[in-house]
Write a structure and sequence with these properties.
Layout: E1 2-7, E2 10-14, E3 19-22, E4 38-42, H1 54-60, E5 66-71, E6 81-83, E7 88-92, E8 95-101, E9 107-113, E10 116-120, H2 134-155, E11 162-166, H3 177-185, E12 191-194, H4 201-209
Parallel strand pairs: 3-4, 4-5, 5-6, 10-11, 11-12
Antiparallel strand pairs: 1-2, 2-3, 7-8, 8-9, 9-10
Helix pairs in contact: 2-3
């Protein structure tokens, strides 16, 4: 499995059989095998997670087999698979995606590709903010942890091969809440922080605060 960081929450993952492109907003894509199928995933319709220009871009690159898997809040192109939270979808032989409810909008994805597991959180995160009420923040944390419990149940002690998880510096002192809970409760070989708004140094901050995760966390820039 090969992982390429594109921008913000966008990553390109290549497995033996497929490419997976997650939450494209903007950025240059690497050269790809035009005959290998590519799945375009978008977790929700916010402008930093979905840009419909990805489809003409892939067409100009000559990609011959482009498939779209989009959250059902997106009005996608003809033939796309529209997905709702809390569902499981068969995409191809030996390929399924399970969705989880975001704590913002849309879904998170767990992809199972012939035994390989890929998780992309979209905007599923523990969105605690200083300016919100104590009750709001408590409800947010409860919702996030419930979805992580569902993810752990789905994994059933299996290990994710590559996980893409929110680390947002705008949360200030609470910036690490979601990622820490994920690392404490979900088994993953490689974890790629994302959604850091042009501030990749937050990854180094996280590693200084939590050196015990140095072997798992991947620097995306």
């Amino acid at each position: 499995m090969e992982v390429t960081y594109i921008h913000h929450s966008c990553f390109l993952v290549e497995t033996d059989r497929f490419y997976y492109l997650f939450d494209y907003e903007k950025g240059s894509l690497p050269e790809m095998d035009v005959q290998k199928p590519i799945f375009v995933f978008s977790s929700h319709g916010h402008g930093d997670h979905y840009n419909p220009e990805i489809f003409p871009l892939l067409n100009r690159m000559g990609m011959q087999n482009v498939r779209a898997v989009l959250s059902d809040d997106i009005d996608g192109p003809a033939g796309c698979v529209s997905v709702a939270p809390g569902k499981r979808y068969g995409l191809d032989e030996g390929l399924t995606v399970t969705t989880f409810a975001s704590t913002d909008l849309g879904v998170a994805f767990l992809i199972e590709d012939e035994g390989e597991l890929i998780y992309h959180a979209g905007d599923l995160n523990d969105w605690v903010w200083d300016g919100e009420s104590e009750d709001y923040n408590a409800q947010m944390t409860a919702k996030y942890r419930h979805q992580m419990d569902l993810l752990a149940q789905k994994l059933d002690q299996r290990q994710i091969d590559a996980a893409f998880v929110v680390l947002d510096p705008r949360q200030e002192k609470d910036y690490d809440r979601g990622l820490c809970y994920f690392l404490e409760n979900i088994s993953a070989k490689q974890v790629y922080p994302m959604h850091f708004w042009e501030n990749p140094s937050i990854i180094e901050t996280f590693l200084k605060d939590h050196p015990e995760y140095t072997e798992k966390i991947r620097r995306t820039e």
